[in-house]
């Protein structure tokens, strides 16, 4: 095969860890290749052991000579047994080209996290998760992310293969349009948290789009972990009936956030923690790229999933992520506390949304889905509806609701809107529901749950009314809950709304 294999050992000593302890990354010794010299391929193997307490990112420089057509990387690492309750080994991987590893720089060429054991990059093609483009001469970096390290350490082995030859032509990216055929100002259904095989999902963009259409969705959002590689692969799946927005799930060690609806091709870096004080910069970058900042599953219990950056930079928050679980219940309560604080402090409020976070079977695309009142089916209009809180979350296309508050001389406000009246003016809160058999309606205010209805009939259709005043309720939002299994704990929601605010004149 014309291969020339060399071994190189890497180690991280206590001194190295001490010196770099304040940083999030460490760079090891280089892996070098000779010039082509008539060979078709060259392979180098590098191995080492990462101890507990390793930096978040460890870079292995690769000296790439001229004339390389393709770079291929594979890796393995050990997974020793660990005591119960102790984290084992998990090692992520990615690639940066000769432009460097600077935070927010231009050198990013791909990330697969722990979803793949090998990848390749060349001008005309790349493994999903990675960006095709020229393999230029210079110092490239394989990025290792020791997500968790067992007490015994993490022993790894990298195999790097360079293939020489004439480079292919890099395809010009084509992106889905930012507009679909809408219905004018209407309620549009969407799922803004979806993973394809470009990160740790198992579905192709075509499969996801087909499932979205079956779920009755009008729009979806691509949100693969820490990569924008899928962006050019969605154009063929869009259509008059389906708007496809592009973005990323920025997956840091201190929580995940959706960069929702950024300009096609935008990459958002994820290599920082809350203590690094870098987050505000990247939140601004998301907005400059036309996106929304939406912390995802803020109270999820997986390692690194809990949101630690606060909500000052957020445009909305994901309160319902996939099948409703106890951490979603905590997020819902936490979000409600934020609503109370916004009323007390007279500042802007944070809208809620829900998404499926679907990766693979049996994950259900569109469960839940965010239903947005927008002026049209365009990226900008959907984003504006989400930002304004003119939306509710439903478990499926079968559930439809309408929440209105009416008072005074017929003044009326809907979801995400504000009604200003004299403090003692009676107002009527009205929720019309369909598609929710045996569910109960709860009206929630800044004091908590103040009204719970009897279960709806088996038809799932009904109207529930409740009366209050601006003095008694600063806002009202609705929850549609399934029957509880037992006791006073509420059942999972079938739908929940953003609030209608009541302001005392």
TrEMBL record:
GO molecular function, one term: 5'-3' RNA exonuclease activity
Source lineage: Bacteria, Bacillati, Actinomycetota, Actinomycetes, Kitasatosporales
InterPro entries in the record: PHP_domain, Pol/histidinol_Pase-like
SUPFAM superfamilies: PHP domain-like
Entries under PANTHER family matching the protein: EXONUCLEASE, POLYMERASE_HISTIDINOL PHOSPHATASE N-TERMINAL DOMAIN-CONTAINING PROTEIN
Protein name: Phosphoesterase
NCBIfam families, sorted: CehA_McbA_metalo (NF038032)
């Amino acid at each position: 095969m014309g291969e020339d294999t060399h071994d190189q050992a890497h180690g991280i000593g206590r001194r190295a860890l001490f010196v770099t302890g304040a940083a999030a990354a460490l760079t090891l010794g280089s892996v070098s290749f000779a010039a082509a010299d008539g060979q078709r391929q060259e392979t180098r193997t590098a191995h080492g052991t990462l101890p507990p307490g390793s930096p978040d990112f460890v870079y292995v420089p690769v000296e790439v000579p001229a004339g390389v057509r393709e770079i291929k990387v594979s890796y393995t690492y050990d997974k020793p047994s660990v005591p119960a309750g102790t984290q084992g080994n998990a090692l992520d991987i990615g690639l940066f080209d000769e432009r460097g590893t600077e935070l927010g720089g231009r050198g990013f060429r791909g990330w697969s996290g722990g979803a793949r054991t090998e990848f390749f990059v060349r001008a005309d093609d790349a493994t999903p998760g990675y960006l095709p483009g020229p393999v230029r001469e210079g110092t490239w970096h394989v990025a290792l992310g020791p997500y968790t390290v067992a007490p015994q350490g993490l022993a790894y082995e990298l195999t790097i293969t360079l293939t020489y030859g004439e480079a292919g032509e890099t395809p010009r990216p084509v992106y889905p349009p930012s507009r679909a055929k809408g219905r004018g100002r209407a309620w549009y259904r969407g799922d803004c948290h979806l993973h394809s095989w470009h990160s740790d999902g198992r579905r192709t963009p075509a499969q996801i789009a087909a499932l979205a259409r079956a779920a009755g969705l009008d729009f979806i959002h691509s949100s693969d972990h820490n990569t924008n590689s899928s962006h050019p692969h969605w154009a063929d799946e869009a259509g008059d009936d389906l708007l496809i927005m592009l973005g990323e799930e920025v997956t840091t060690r201190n929580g995940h956030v959706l960069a929702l609806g950024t300009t096609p091709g935008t990459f958002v870096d994820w290599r920082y923690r809350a203590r690094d004080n870098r987050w505000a910069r990247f939140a601004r970058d998301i907005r400059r790229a036309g996106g929304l900042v939406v912390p995802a599953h803020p109270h999820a219990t997986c390692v690194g999933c809990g949101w630690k950056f606060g909500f000052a930079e957020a445009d909305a928050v994901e309160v319902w992520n996939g099948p409703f679980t106890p951490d979603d219940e905590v997020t819902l309560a936490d979000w409600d506390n934020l609503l109370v604080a916004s009323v007390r402090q007279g500042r802007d409020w944070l809208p809620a949304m829900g998404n499926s976070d679907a990766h693979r079977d049996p994950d259900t695309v569109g469960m839940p889905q965010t239903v947005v009142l927008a002026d049209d089916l365009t990226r900008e209009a959907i984003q504006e509806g989400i930002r304004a809180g003119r939306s509710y979350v439903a478990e499926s296309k079968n559930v439809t609701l309408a929440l209105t508050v009416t008072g005074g001389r017929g003044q009326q406000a809907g979801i995400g809107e504000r009604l200003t009246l004299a403090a003692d003016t009676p107002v009527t809160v009205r929720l019309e529901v369909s598609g929710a058999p045996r569910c109960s309606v709860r009206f929630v205010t800044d004091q908590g749950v103040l009204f719970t209805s009897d279960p709806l009939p088996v038809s799932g259709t009904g109207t529930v009314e409740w009366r209050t005043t601006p003095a008694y309720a600063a806002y009202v939002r609705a929850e549609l809950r399934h029957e509880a299994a037992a006791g006073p704990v509420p059942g999972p929601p079938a739908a929940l709304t953003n609030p209608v605010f009541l302001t005392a004149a």
